[in-house]
Design goal:
The chain is mostly helical. The chain folds into two domains: 121 residues, no CATH class; 191 residues, no CATH class. The chain has 17 helices and four strands. The strands form two sheets. The protein has a two-stranded antiparallel ribbon with strand order 1-2. The chain has a two-stranded antiparallel ribbon with strand order 3-4. Helix 7 packs across helix 9 and helix 11 crosses helix 12.
Length: 416
C-alpha cells in the first residue's frame, strides 16, 4: 500500500542510502499507520530521519560511507539524545572508543567527525524503529480526532481495472475544509488548558491541527480506550471517553478555528464530572525512561500540564540538566512530525479564554516563524525537519513566507 503513496515512498527512498536503518522496517505495521490518514506527518518524519543521518551524523564525511552504516550502530544510537544527555554522551564515546559503533568505518579522521557530529546533535536520534514507536503514539491522537472532530467527505472510488489506487483524503485535509467556517479566527496559541495567548501572524489550518493533536494526546486515556504504559507492573489506569473531556476537546477545536456538526454536537453534551483515578506516580525516573513512543502514566501526567507549544518551545531554549525532560522529548516529537517552530507570544498576560481574547486589542508585536531548512553541509546541530511549511506541499502554520535555514534549535522568541 505504501508504494501508492508517492510522497511517503519518495521520502522513504531517500533513507535507502543508509542500509543499517532498514532492519526494523516492520511491514506489518504499515496498514495501521496508513489507516490513521496522516500521510503528511509520516512523510515529514521520514524526511526527518534522512536529514538527521545525512546532514548531521554524516556531515562532512565521505558520502559513500553512508552505505557502511550497520544495523548494530543504528540500533545503538536510536532514541539517544546526545546533546541533552550526559549518560548518552558517555555511552557513545565508549562505544566509539571500543569500536562497537561504525565498525565498518576504520578511518580515524572519519570516526572523529562522526563522533563530533553525533555529540553535538540537539534532539532524539531517529530511526525506522523510532518512527514505528512514535506513530503508535501519534495514531492514538489521530483516531481521537477522527472519531470526535473530523467529518469525512464522500470520495470517488477509482476502478482498479482502469485506474491506479486513489489515495484517501487525509485527516488534515478534511479538517482544513472545516477551518474558518465561523470567522473571525483568532491568531492564538494554547498555552495552558483552555487558555490562549495572541500571536501577530495569521494562524493557518495546519498550525491549528498541530495544537488540536496535542490536545487529543494530552487527554488520550480520557478520550479513548488506549491506556498509558505502566510505570510499575500492576499499577495502571482505566481508559474510557467521557463527555466532559469530549466537550473540552470540541471547545479547543472551535477556539483554533474548526467548526462542523461533530464539534457542535460535542459542545452540546451534558457537562458531567466522571470519577477518574490516575495513579499518583513518582516522577523521579521519567527523564531517564521516556524517549518516545506511548508514554507511561507518570509521563502522561507530566505532559498534561506541559504539552503546549509555548511550553515545549521554551523548554528547548537553553536546555540544562543531565537528562532530557518529558517536555523536551515531546518538543522533539512535534518537530519530527510537524517541523521545527519558533514564535513570539503576547507576554502581557499568562493566558486568557477565547471569550476574553475577543474583547482585547489585536496583538501586533510578535511572530511565529516556521521555516523549511534545506539540507545543511556545515553544521552538526540544526533544525532537521521540513517545517511548517510542515511538509513540502502542505500549507504553512502561518501566512508568513518561509525564512532561510539556520543552525539554531527552534525556540520561543519572547516579545519585548
Amino acid at each position: 500500500m505504501v508504494f501508492h503513496r508517492d510522497e511517503i515512498w519518495s521520502a522513504m527512498r531517500q533513507v535507502a542510502v543508509f542500509p543499517g536503518l532498514w532492519h526494523d522496517i516492520k511491514l506489518g505495521n504499515w496498514a495501521k499507520h496508513l489507516a490513521a490518514h496522516i500521510d503528511g506527518q509520516i512523510t515529514t518524519y521520514w524526511r526527518h530521519i534522512y536529514r538527521v543521518w545525512n546532514d548531521v551524523v554524516f556531515n562532512g564525511v565521505d558520502p559513500s560511507l553512508r552505505q557502511c552504516l550497520d544495523a548494530s550502530s543504528a540500533r545503538s544510537l536510536q532514541f539517544m539524545a546526545p546533546a541533552w544527555s550526559e549518560k548518552d554522551q558517555q555511552a557513545i564515546r565508549e562505544k566509539m572508543k571500543n569500536g562497537t559503533l561504525f565498525c565498518n568505518i576504520s578511518s580515524e579522521e572519519d570516526r572523529s567527525k562522526l563522533l563530533r557530529n553525533i555529540l553535538a546533535f540537539e534532539g532524539v536520534i531517529p530511526s525506522v524503529l523510532t518512527f514505528h514507536e512514535n506513530m503508535r503514539y501519534l495514531t492514538v491522537g489521530a483516531k481521537i480526532l477522527e472519531r470526535y472532530i473530523e467529518v469525512k467527505r464522500p470520495t470517488e472510488k477509482a476502478k482498479p481495472s482502469i485506474a491506479p489506487l486513489k489515495t484517501p483524503e487525509s485527516l488534515v485535509s478534511n479538517l482544513t475544509q472545516d477551518w474558518g467556517q465561523q470567522p473571525p479566527v483568532l491568531n492564538v496559541v494554547e498555552c495552558s488548558e483552555g487558555r490562549y495567548q495572541s500571536i501577530d501572524t495569521g494562524l493557518q489550518p495546519l498550525g491549528a491541527f498541530a495544537q488540536l493533536m496535542l490536545a487529543a494526546l494530552r487527554s488520550f486515556p480520557l478520550l479513548s480506550s488506549e491506556t498509558p504504559l505502566q510505570d510499575v507492573k500492576g499499577i495502571g489506569m482505566n481508559a474510557f471517553a467521557d463527555a466532559k473531556s469530549r466537550i473540552r476537546l470540541c471547545k479547543m477545536a472551535s477556539s483554533v478555528g474548526f467548526w462542523n456538526k461533530k464539534i457542535e454536537k460535542g459542545l452540546a453534551l451534558p457537562d458531567q464530572d466522571v470519577p477518574r483515578e490516575i495513579p499518583d506516580m513518582i516522577m523521579l525516573q521519567t527523564e531517564q525512561v521516556w524517549r518516545g513512543g506511548l508514554p507511561t502514566i507518570s509521563v502522561f501526567s507530566e505532559l498534561r500540564t506541559k504539552s503546549f507549544l509555548p511550553t515545549l518551545a521554551s523548554t528547548a531554549k537553553g536546555v540544562k540538566g543531565k537528562e532530557p525532560t518529558a517536555a523536551l522529548i515531546q518538543f522533539d516529537f512535534v518537530c519530527a512530525f510537524f517541523g521545527p517552530f519558533a514564535f513570539n507570544v503576547d507576554q502581557s498576560h499568562a493566558g486568557l479564554s477565547i471569550e476574553e481574547l475577543r474583547n482585547r486589542p489585536i496583538f501586533n508585536d510578535s511572530a511565529i516563524v516556521l521555516d523549511d531548512p534545506e539540507p545543511m553541509t556545515d553544521a552538526p546541530g540544526l533544525d532537521v525537519t521540513p517545517s511548517m511549511d510542515w511538509a513540502v506541499g502542505e500549507v504553512s502554520f502561518t501566512n508568513e513566507p518561509p525564512i532561510t535555514a539556520t543552525n539554531q534549535t527552534p525556540m520561543l522568541k519572547l516579545s519585548s
